[in-house]
Design a protein that fits this description.
Structural class: alpha/beta
Strand content: 15-25%
Helix content: 25-40%
Strand order of the largest sheet: 10-9-11-1-12
CATH architecture of the largest domain: 3-Layer(aba) Sandwich
Number of domains: 3
Bound molecules: iron/sulfur cluster
CATH superfamily of the largest domain: 4-hydroxy-3-methylbut-2-enyl diphosphate reductase, catalytic domain
Length: 310
Amino acid sequence: MDKTVILASPRGFCAGVRHAVEIAEAVLRQLPPPLYALNELVHNRQVVELFTRRGVCFVRSIDEVPPGATVLFSAHGVPPAVRAAAAARGIRAIDATCPFVVKVHHEVRRFAAEGLAIALIGHRGHDEVVGVAGEAPGQVTVIESAGEAEAFQPREARGVAVVTQTTLSAAETERVLAVLRRRFPALRTTAADDICYATTNRQQAVQALAARTPLVLVLGGRHSSNTLRLAEVARAAGADARLVSACDELPADRLDAVTEVGLTAGASTPEAFIETVLAALAARGFARRETLETVRETIHFPLPRELAGA
Ligand code: SF4
């Protein structure tokens, strides 16, 4: 008898990642090579390899981009100092920062202008956090955990504000926020949550999946924040969640022992990789597919005007 794959919906590419990929494709159509990209366009090896094959040169520092060249800023954004360095060297910058990340940059600038100390809940060293913190380096403190929130000593300031990385676990973020609210009763927050719609929707979908099936495959990059959070959320909901970043990482023993398996994918995981894994699962007897939909997504960001005709 055929075994079943239950697909979480939504899963895979979010609007911000699709936007970054569409911008990169438009630039490749419009401009002659080489095109440089600062940091990974999105945190997924398959996507980076695809664009590398198409002639994109990925670099980790703006200093590696020659004057006069074109550089793409990734979906995670960059600090203002990097934009300034690019402009100073005559580098044409094309910005693929996700609009939800841009919103957090605006919030930090607004709080910084008010003289507030800013707690940025997120993962130190993540590209998005580096970019956001760079808006006000003297005023932003990155906080990774409830313990760090307890130890946080804001420098002399008119008050304390908080913003968050867009791809965090909602439950873990709430624990850190609770500490900050207790310690700073006048804590300023943003009007709406910084955790983006795609992160929230994928976490809710994987929670529903974990309630339905004890084994859940989470497809995506090992350094993709939202992918790692999906696996954590599935485990917290009681499932045996396995991160799969390549087909040879499928847990053969576990798959042989079950008749159905749940599957989701991080926001930077391309559909082509999901299909490859589904084909590998079908070859192992998981030929039936079911979808468990928790919400339907409709968000789409248009191309920047300068590229819209490409
Ligand atoms: S996960 Fe959210 S913030 Fe990150 S690129 Fe996607 S939509 Fe934007």
